[in-house]
Amino acid sequence: MDLTSCPGCDAPAEVLWRFCEESTAGPVEHVKVRCVRRHWFLGSTESLFGSRA
Fold first, then answer.
1. Based on the structure, what is the number of domains in the chain?
2. pTM
3. Angstrom distance (rounded) from CA 49 to CA 52
4. DSSP class of residue 26?
């Protein structure tokens, strides 16, 4: 289990899955996150967490 904090409310959250998508600048990691307050996020690791990843 991969745990982090929710990008929306900082509550505990679980990373459900990770995958990489190719881009012109190279591969970009994406994640799907679900927090204990039922928030869901899907996006690039950088866009969701910035330097916290």
1. 1
2. 0.76
3. 5
4. S
